[in-house]
């Protein structure tokens, strides 16, 4: 049967679908401009802090810092590392790496994060217009910019989120009109998406295939249009086989199907009760519940109507299924299902069609809600900066090209439900060509990794439990500096039995910097294993 005859048999699209509309009209253009302005303004909190309140971001910046340091002949730890170019975290790191010479690594990291989170509402507006939904409601996705993935500092996942939305946009255009050109572009895009983040690629590829099945109504047609989507599958399979042989990637899959409570406080509640906190990234579950319900209710109150096309609800259905039933951890990853909350509002917007019975007062409500939300977030961010400012003084007192150990007895802040201080000392590695343990270099997805020839680590050592510090077990002789975050001076207790003198260099608020006498050695080699083993998200 010819393609023409198959096209005739497709289910009829609604009058507002892109295939029967003109390209972006003046109203859609104005809406897109409004979303762009609002999204850029919403990034203000990122620029108000010396270091963003994101748990893993210092470690990701340290990866870029190590990559740059390996090209520096004066870097004293080159023999410890090797570069793992075959990683699905490549794209985000390369972006920060490319911007660092122009802005410095801290500003480059902020710029990439700001661009990633701001691009989510913008990509949502473009995708909504493509599917016949009202792009105005993309404004509702702005609060989710600072949700679970942002708080935990999932840099590469954040970068992959808008890329994934644009990937879906390109696929929907291909479903409507498949050509060789858009097939090639989509195939290349799938490879880019994989190297942004493997999870996001698998997630969007699943959505694309199901969307094609429902939209075309024919298995053969769906297979033809979806072939470019699976271009990256062989690459993903090779990567999986390669990392599966790594001992650090052999963690069992954990499902954690707890609906109303959880034994892990870092997942912020059960599958159901934790949804709105993970969506918004704020402390109060009650506030998150009320505010979150309001975001989903506003389109209906303003007169919007849900689409009757089943295909446009596929992305949200898959997202909900992943959040409810997806694994919590496995293959050296953590919070696998929780992070997908960032897609919930964008995919919900795809089902909100334009309506001729709009209620202007309710339609204007998102603008005022967003202004209030940004003010609240700015206040919360300023409170975090007060708690974190002491680290800046500690950092300025550390000489470059040294090795440091992070001992964060105080990991949490009142400004965030995430333990944002856990990896903060890793900014030393990012900014001063040093090495800080714990380091993401122990993980198979890392761009810069510790060499496999190093001795195996003591799995009892964990950055989550600095109170278990013992000089010999934690290889204290490896380090010049010890960065401690605690309410009292723990130096005598931590280093009282050390074979080398360790003295307090400086203190600022609850931040303490200790230094081992650089002239003292006890014979431990610099090739000893890294200090800690982590179960943190990557």
Would you mind describing this structure in some detail?
- It is a single chain.
- With 538 residues, the chain is α+β, with helices and mostly antiparallel strands.
- The chain contains 19 helices and eleven strands.
- It has helices spanning 3-8, 26-41, 44-47, 57-69, 90-103, 105-131, 148-151, 155-176, 180-196, 198-216, 219-226, 233-244, 275-280, 285-301, 314-325, 344-349, 360-396, 427-431, 491-495; strands spanning 81-83, 305-306, 329-330, 333-334, 352-353, 403-408, 435-437, 448-450, 481-485, 502-508, 511-516.
- The strands form four sheets. The chain has a five-stranded mixed β-sheet with strand order 7-6-9-11-10.
- A hairpin with a 2-residue loop joins strand 10 and strand 11.
- Helix 5 (90-103) packs across helix 8, helix 6 packs parallel to helix 8 (155-176) and helix 10 runs antiparallel to helix 11.
- The longest helix has 37 residues, at 360-396.
- It is globular.
Summarize the structure.
It is built from 19 helices and eleven strands. By secondary structure, it is an alpha+beta fold.
Q: Which descriptors apply to this entry?
A:
19 helices; globular; 8% strand; alpha+beta
Poorly predicted spans: 1-24, 525-533
* Range of strand content: 5-15%
- Note the gap between the termini: 48 Å
The oligomeric state is: single chain
Radius of gyration: 25 Å
Main beta-sheet annotation? 5 strands, mixed
Helix content: 40-55%
Number of H/I helices: 19
Strand arrangement within the widest β-sheet reads: 7-6-9-11-10
Averaged pLDDT: 89
Number of strands: 11
Which structural class do the helices and strands define?
A: alpha+beta
- SSE sequence, one letter per element: HHHHEHHHHHHHHHHEHEEHEHEHEEEHEE
Large-scale geometry: globular
């Amino acid at each position: 049967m010819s393609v023409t005859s198959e096209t005739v048999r497709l289910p009829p699209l609604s009058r507002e679908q892109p295939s029967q509309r003109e390209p972006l009209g003046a109203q859609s253009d104005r809406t897109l401009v409004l979303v762009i302005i609002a999204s850029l303004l919403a990034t203000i909190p990122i620029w108000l802090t010396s270091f963003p309140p994101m748990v893993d971001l210092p470690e990701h910046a340290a990866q870029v810092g190590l990559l740059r340091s390996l090209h520096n002949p004066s870097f004293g730890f080159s023999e410890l590392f090797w570069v793992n170019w075959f990683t699905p975290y490549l794209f985000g790191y390369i972006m920060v790496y490319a911007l660092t010479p122009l802005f410095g690594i801290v500003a480059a990291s902020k710029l990439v994060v700001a661009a990633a989170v701001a691009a989510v509402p913008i990509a949502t507006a473009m995708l909504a217009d493509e599917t016949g939904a009202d792009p105005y409601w993309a404004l509702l996705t702005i609060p989710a910019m600072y949700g679970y993935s942002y708080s935990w500092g999932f840099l590469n996942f954040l970068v992959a989120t808008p890329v994934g939305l644009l990937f879906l946009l390109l696929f929907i255009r291909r479903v409507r009109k498949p050509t060789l050109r858009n097939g090639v572009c989509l195939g290349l895009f799938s490879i880019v998406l994989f190297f942004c983040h493997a999870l996001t690629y698998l997630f969007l590829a699943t959505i694309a295939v199901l969307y094609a099945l429902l939209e075309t109504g024919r298995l053969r047609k769906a297979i033809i249009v979806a072939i470019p989507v699976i271009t990256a599958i062989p690459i993903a399979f090779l990567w999986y086989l390669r990392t599966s042989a790594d001992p650090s990637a052999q963690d069992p899959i954990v499902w954690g199907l707890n609906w109303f409570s959880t034994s892990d406080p870092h997942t912020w509640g059960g599958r159901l009760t934790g949804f709105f906190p993970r969506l918004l990234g704020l402390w109060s579950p009650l506030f998150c519940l009320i505010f979150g319900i309001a975001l989903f209710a506003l389109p209906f109150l303003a007169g919007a109507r849900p689409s009757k096309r089943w295909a446009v609800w596929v992305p949200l259905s898959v997202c909900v299924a992943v959040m409810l039933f997806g694994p919590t951890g496995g293959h050296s990853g953590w919070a696998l299902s929780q992070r997908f909350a960032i897609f919930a509002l964008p995919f919900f917007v795809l089902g909100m069609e334009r309506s001729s019975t709009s209620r202007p007062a309710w339609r204007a409500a998102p603008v005022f809600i967003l202004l209030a939300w940004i003010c609240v977030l700015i206040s919360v961010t300023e409170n975090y900066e007060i708690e974190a400012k002491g680290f800046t003084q500690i950092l300025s007192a550390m000489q470059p090209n040294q090795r440091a150990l992070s001992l964060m007895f105080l990991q949490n802040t009142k400004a965030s439900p995430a333990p944002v201080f856990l990896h903060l000392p890793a900014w030393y590695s990012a900014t001063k060509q040093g090495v800080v343990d714990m380091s993401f270099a122990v993980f198979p997805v890392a761009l810069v990794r510790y060499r496999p020839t190093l001795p195996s680590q003591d799995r009892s050592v964990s950055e989550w439990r600095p109170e278990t510090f013992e000089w010999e077990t934690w290889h204290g002789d490896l380090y010049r500096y010890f960065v401690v975050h605690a309410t009292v001076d723990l130096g005598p207790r931590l280093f009282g039995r050390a074979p080398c003198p360790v003295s307090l260099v400086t203190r600022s608020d609850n931040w303490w910097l200790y230094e081992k006498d650089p002239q003292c050695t006890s014979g431990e080699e610099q090739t000893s294993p890294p200090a800690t083993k982590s179960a943190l998200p990557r």
